[in-house]
Structures are given as C-alpha cells and as structure tokens.
Fold this protein.
Amino acid sequence: MKKCSVLLSLLLLLALCFSLASCAGGGNVFALLSVRLKGNGDGTVTAVARNEFALSPAALPVRLTLYVGAEAGDVSEMRVAGCAQTDDLGLFAALEVSVSVEEPAYYCAEIVYIVHGEEEILQGGTVRYDASGTRVAAMG
C-alpha cells in the first residue's frame, strides 16, 4: 500500500510539473543546468556544462566559458582560456571545452544561457590546478 501511495504522489508531482511547464503558451523553460571543472591529469583542464533535467520543448542556447588566472578572484580579473556554445543544450546534453595547462593556475567555468530573452549566468567554483591538470585546491 505504501508503494502505491508513493507512486501516486510521484505521478501527481510529474503531472504538476508538466502543467507548470506548459503555461504561457509553452514558452516556459524549466531546466536544471550544471557547470563543472575537471582536471584530466594529462596537462589539460575541461569545463563541462550539462542539462541535467528539463521540462520544456523550447531551445536552450548556452555559452560555456573557461577562465584562467594567476589568482583566485572575480572572472573579470581572469582571462578567457576557452569558449564553446550551442543554440540548444538539449536534455542530458553536455557542452565541453578543454585547454592545456601551461602553469599552475586558478580556473573557473561559467555558463550564460537565455531564458525568455533574458541572459542568466551560472558560475562554478574556482579551482587551482597544477601543470599536470591535477586539482590542487577548490576555492568555493
């Protein structure tokens, strides 16, 4: 009986999510995006933007930027190391950009996406990688 009530609750929650996503002529976007850094241990660092979950038929344009700097700080004080973009980061899709590590430095990844004509920004934490692309310290 408990399994049935849990299943019914999940179905009702799913129905609610679909109804909310279809409001306003289907123009709404409900998506869970993530941005991560990974050191590959081969002298490279990769930034990954991923659409973890979405309830929307609308396209989701995304630009992924990987920043590097000698000090941890605001990305405006760092330089762009690499950039990638797509007109639609579909459900479970990923966008990646990899760069070679020239020397130990701080890296930060940021995604910029458009929802209802407005630019939204999601920034990952700043991480220090050594010259081999191995994580040394996370700054937040």
Summary: DSSP finds one helix and nine strands in the chain.
